[in-house]
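Might I ask for a little of your time on a matter of protein folding? Here, with my thanks, is the record as I have it:
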Amino acid sequence: MDFWSENRFLVTGGAGFLGSHLVAHLKSRGAARIFIPRSAEYDLTKEEAIRRLLKASEPDIVIHLAAVVGGIGANRENPGRFFYDNLIMGVQLMEQARLWGVKKFVAVGTICCYPKMTPVPFKEESLWDGYPEETNAPYGLAKKMMLVQSQAYRQQYGFHSIFLLPVNLYGPGDNFDPRSSHVIPALIKKCLDAIHRQEKEIVVWGTGKATREFLYVEDAANAILLATERFDTPDPVNIGSGFEISIRDLAERIAELTGFKGRIVWDPTKPDGQPRRMLDVSRAQQEFGFKAETLFWKGLEKTIAWYRAHTQDP
């Protein structure tokens, strides 16, 4: 049986940033039956809506990407919503998928599941060694419960569910809304807005000392589909590029690539978030052959070019 052409796929969040790239990769692999629910029709926080969705899509495989997510500011403003909506979507969708008889459930978590002071590089074995960083703990813990559910369902019901832990993503089609965007699109927009307005400085949250790891969205889509096809164990798996960069160096590089020549002013009254983030990505390579291919600087160039082409900014 050809895995891609013979199975029916339900991709929650399939119209979103990561989802749109993943669906394109699905089609390129030969998948013809892909159902992409829209939140206006299927509210995944409602059990009845999930039942209707499964009846309409009749999936063999569920890839659960849907999430309520944002940067540090959005997490601080919406801890209750980010906890409840993400928790209830994951719990109810996995339960109803089990009852429906879905053959495989791919749960996509987040690097925010890790404890605040996890030793670098983050190893999957460290997931339970402490509490997540405070500004995004409600979101991270809500997503982390899908790992608990996944392992429990495999143990009791023989349910085929896997749990993946991607790092911060970036790329064409990212969210550039300053109220909810992550750091890369936020910095790109700040720099290009400053150029357009002829401003001589931009203000960036924190001290710039924190480090982050980033994965180009096309690589993330490829990783998830490799795991969907080839991976089937209860162990969580990191999905990343295996490098880290300080926010200060990131801001300077984005300023250079966008052509912003003004000052970068740091606001230490705003939080840095988790001090360091970088994954050990060896398990993904060993288990299903994933290795990030996009050089970070090339990915940034493509992201900036996409944003320029889709806005009136220079």
Q: What stands out?
A: The domain at 3-173+213-243+278-294 is CATH 3.40.50.720 (Rossmann fold). The chain has a mean pLDDT of 95.
